[in-house]
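User: quick one, sequence for these tokens?
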């Protein structure tokens, strides 16, 4: 696998090697020792795998968990295509409030690693997308928060009209960056 750092320290794009022939392809999607060395987190251990299926125009996020419940995520798309987004919420970070946005698709197999201290979300670009992610901490509903995706302070440009997005009630009630920053 090829690990490429992004502009946000600790966030990596990961391109797996695919071996294809007339039958299709094979690719390795995760190898713990290699992963730990590449991202510089020798003690990271994923404890849960999750999956969601969503249709075009669904925006999930920008979610994060506070304090000891924070989660690192390794995300990928096994069917379809999404615009995946990570926002730096690490207090004292030089890139606090900045984001990376990368297209992940089943076609490329590209993955994104997002360490603890980031809000995360994605917009479905294909008719349907199957999204998979590993997390290094169990879900703690009492620690969950949502960053408002359309907060002008983020400067997030989505390839869709924000008014046409399909959002959950929770995501519609997301908080602006300034309000979240005051509680970190």
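Assistant:
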């Amino acid at each position: 696998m090829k690990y490429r750092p992004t502009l946000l320290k600790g966030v990596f794009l990961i391109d797996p090697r695919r071996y294809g022939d007339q039958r299709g392809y094979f690719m390795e999607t995760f190898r713990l020792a290699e992963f730990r060395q590449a991202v510089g987190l020798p003690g990271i251990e994923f404890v849960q795998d999750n999956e969601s299926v969503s249709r075009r125009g669904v925006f999930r996020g920008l979610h994060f968990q506070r304090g000891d419940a924070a989660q690192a995520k390794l995300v990928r798309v096994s069917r379809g295509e999404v615009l995946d987004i990570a926002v730096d919420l690490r207090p004292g970070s030089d890139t606090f409030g900045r984001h990376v946005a990368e297209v992940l698709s089943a076609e490329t197999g590209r993955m994104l690693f997002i360490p603890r201290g980031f809000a995360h979300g994605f917009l479905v670009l294909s008719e349907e997308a199957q999204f998979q992610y590993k997390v290094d901490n169990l879900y703690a509903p009492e620690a969950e928060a949502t960053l408002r995706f359309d907060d002008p302070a983020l400067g997030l440009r989505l390839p869709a009209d924000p008014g046409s997005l399909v959002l959950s009630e929770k995501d519609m009630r997301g908080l602006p960056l300034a309000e979240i920053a005051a509680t970190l």
